[in-house]
Amino acid sequence: MGDSxxxxxxxxxxxxxxxxxxxxxxxAVTADGGREEFVGAHSVDxxxxxxxxxxxxxxxxxxxxxxPRGEPSAVLEFADVAPVPVRNRIRARLWLAGWxxxxxxxxxxxATRVVLRQPSGAVVVDLDEFAAAAPDPLATAESRLLxxxxxxxxxxxxxxxxxxxxxxxxxxxxxxxLAVDRHGLTLRIERNRAHGDVRLPxxxxxxxxxxxxxxxxxxxxxxxxxxxxRALQRQRTDGDG
Length: 241
Fold this sequence. Notes:
Pnp Oxidase, Chain A; Split barrel-like; 2 domains; three-stranded antiparallel sheet; 7 helices
């Protein structure tokens, strides 16, 4: 269950799905009752169609070739894993149902249904919106950015908690950067037996890493001007004792 911090800007479901698809490294395929895992074997074209390279002896290949053309016969599953070690690292899952067609050196997947599941729940993504959407411009850099923030700027992460409502920090034992996109930064607040996520929106979207740096500096300036949350103050006092 997430925390109650308010925010207004976030990626649309179609954009979030395309970002997940663009950055996922592995893909699980279920077809004709069987399931295979493929690592580093898929690519994505401009309209979101998945292109999958599989071994010649793959049972999936035979199933795809023999399946009636145009009939839903397979499900592809992708997972979005947080690059920073946190509790429950799966941030979202994406399922594509549809059918394969055979090309020269790969299989092309034609989706008939796209479902995105996030902590807030599952949503069916409109196929036209999915095809027209583009991945978040920071998606391919997100892993590097978050890892650097967590490993080299823990003081900055702690300072950003001043922008979090005090009740969201009650019982917090650890705060880590969980996600970043053009619209904002999400923090994971871990407690002894639970966790919650809080989003800190940027004042305007960031279209590249340079703009993201500027947006982060503004958040940090706002945090520096804010008072330290009482909940965090109590934790520091207890820890010093």
